[in-house]
Amino acid sequence: MASYTHDCPYCAAKNSTFTVAGEHKHLAKAHAWSVLLICGSCGNGAVAEVSDNGNRTPPLKHPHDLTLRDQHGGVFTVLGLYPRVQLPSIPEHLPDTVAKAFREG
């Protein structure tokens, strides 16, 4: 089953495994796909823009993480993930321990 490992932009889970749930081939960009990803931690969806690097294998048919090579040498390059992970804004003049808690989520 195709997957992708990344930090979740919703629940902030580090290195969450996203399941590839859908795909759409770009009509104007050769070798480009939009891929629907579902976070294994919170169940929210994200979209990744990926390149098949000329191997023409659809992302749903990839047997494991998109960034790892399959048995035929095919691998995808992730060009972007949307929405982007948002870092929290930290108010000024906080004690270091409180500011650290904001950064860690």
- Counted beta strands: 5
User: What is the spatial order of strands in the main beta sheet?
Assistant: 1-2-3-4-5
Helical percentage: under 10%
Total number of domains: 1
Mean pLDDT comes to 88
| Major sheet size, sense and barrel closure | 5 strands, antiparallel
Secondary-structure element order, N to C: EEEEEH
- Report the principal-axis shape: elongated
Number of helices: 1
Q: Helix/strand/pairing class, anyone?
A: mainly beta
Radius of gyration: 17 Å
Distance between the termini: 30 Å
Q: Low-confidence parts, pLDDT < 50 over ≥5 residues? A: none
Query: What is the chains' assembly state?
Result: single chain
Estimate what percentage of residues fall within beta strands. 25-35%
Offer a concise description of the structure:
With 105 residues, the chain is mainly beta. It is 9% helix and 33% strand. The protein has one domain (3-104).
Describe this structure in words.
A hairpin with a 6-residue loop joins β2 and β3 (32-39). Helices cover 9% and strands 33% of the residues. By secondary structure, it is mostly beta strands. It has a five-stranded antiparallel sheet, with no helix packed on it. It has one helix at 96-104, and strands spanning 3-6, 16-25, 32-39, 45-51, 77-82. The mean pLDDT is 88.
